[in-house]
Amino acid sequence: MAETLSTQVAIVGAGPAGSLLSLILHQAGIDSIMVERQSREHVLSRIRAGVLEWGTVELLRRHGIGERMDREGHVHTETGISYGGDQLFYFDIGAHANSAFMSYGQTEIQKDLYDAHDAAGTVAYYDVDDDVAFHDVTTSRPSVTFTRHGQDHRIEADYVVGCDGFHGPAKNAIPSDVLRRYEKTYPFGWLGILSETPPLEHLIYANSSRGFALASQRNPMLSRYYVQCPLDDTVDQWSDERFWDELLARFPDSVSSQIVTGPSIEKSIAPLRSFVAEPMRYGNLFLAGDAAHIVPPTGAKGLNLAVSDVFYLSRGLIQQINERDSHYLDCYSEMALRRVWAAVRFSWWLTGLLHRFPEQTEIDQRLQEAELTYIQHSAKGQAAISEQYAGMPFER
Ligand code: RFL
Ligand code: PHB
């Protein structure tokens, strides 16, 4: 016999999108239940994003989960780009976009979110089997079913939300003649490491004839670095020594001489993809975050888009449930997608500008460098990259 539960909003996926949505709804007096395939420990061990747009920072603060971020995060206004072997410039999003961004790891945000859930006493099922299914999503009583530890469960709700990432089942619950999918994969990946070494003062992205590299950070004693690598490489092929040699070779000497190397404490390879599924609503099923869209990490937009989706969706659900007004829920998909497409375009453009493509020849390399020279020396070029890196404001 299935155990049947009832709630206002059933949320599949307890990553940043799902756990932020559930918390914001709770703060508005709305009950939800989260269903997560992984253990809580596993979700907390994933090393992912590190850059928060200011809209994300302010939203986290507004919902009472900004305290540790404000204490431990590092606020930046400038980001560096190196190219051509010896060129390095910074674009200033303080000067050009009147904004800033914060280096603070997704892993830390996830911990802050789970701590807030513990304090609030919200309901979640972790470690569920890989059989989550959505039912009756075009009716007024949709539901979600799953098995956990041999027990069948059914959650009946007013609304169901897929915050289940790129590989989750939610978008497949939308008929294929309704859901449009747009997808582009890139012929390389990012090999990332964490090391307990002091990071550079600024983030620096590198275009090099050897391939892309990025110097990022988590805290004063934790650095995050990436190098572009072939898609079929495995981490075993990348000893720490090989990683550091390759990273240093991709930056100008003025940068690489500042990088402090040390043993890695985490090493992983991520593929790069641009993907959008639209619309983000079908009946009473909503998609949010990576469940609906993926960007290559070059623009640092993925987590920020998950947060802006949750901003729009929570606003719509709260207005609908608490005030019986459907306005914001009805325009959720359209509003969220405007921001999504802007970020998908920016991430695609920056990926193309900074990476080495397999078919690339000398002229392609020089054309990338010529575009970077233009941005370096043009106030308007700097303004364009700055305002997109800063991110569009969340619409009111
Ligand atoms: P998540 O984090 O993938 O969470 C989805 C959750 O759903 C669960 N799930 C299921 N649960 C139940 N049943 C099922 N059948 C399920 N299938 C899946 C999963 O276990 C998971 O817990 O999606 P969400 O919440 O939308 O959050 C999105 C962000 O995680 C993602 O966009 C960012 O990490 C992307 N990203 C970056 N974003 C930024 O804004 N700034 C950055 O600097 C940045 N850097 C990055 C990144 C992603 C990276 N990788 C590894 C892909 C750097 C990297 C290397
Ligand atoms: C990170 O710190 O992990 C990071 C920073 C900037 C990016 C992507 C990832 O564009």
DSSP strand (E) fraction?
A: 25-35%
Evaluate the radius of gyration: 21 Å
Strands across the major sheet, in which order?
7-6-15-16-17-14-18-21
Give the assembly state of these chains: single chain
The coarse silhouette is: globular
Domain count, please report it.
2
| CATH architecture assignment name of the largest domain | 3-Layer(bba) Sandwich
Q: Level of helix content?
A: 25-40%
Distance between the termini: 46 Å
* CATH superfamily label of the largest domain: FAD/NAD(P)-binding domain
Structure annotation, total helices: 13
Low-confidence stretches: none
Kindly name the structural category.
alpha/beta
Reported for the largest beta sheet, the result is: 8 strands, mixed
Question: What's the rounded overall pLDDT mean?
Answer: 97
Task: Identify every distinct bound molecule in the structure, by name, code or SMILES.
Answer: 8-demethyl-8-dimethylamino-flavin-adenine-dinucleotide, P-hydroxybenzoic acid
- What is the β-strand count? 21
CATH class of the largest domain: Alpha Beta
Observed structural traits:
alpha/beta; 6-stranded mixed beta sheet; D-Amino Acid Oxidase, Chain A, domain 2; binds P-hydroxybenzoic acid; 28% strand; 21 strands; 13 helices; binds 8-demethyl-8-dimethylamino-flavin-adenine-dinucleotide
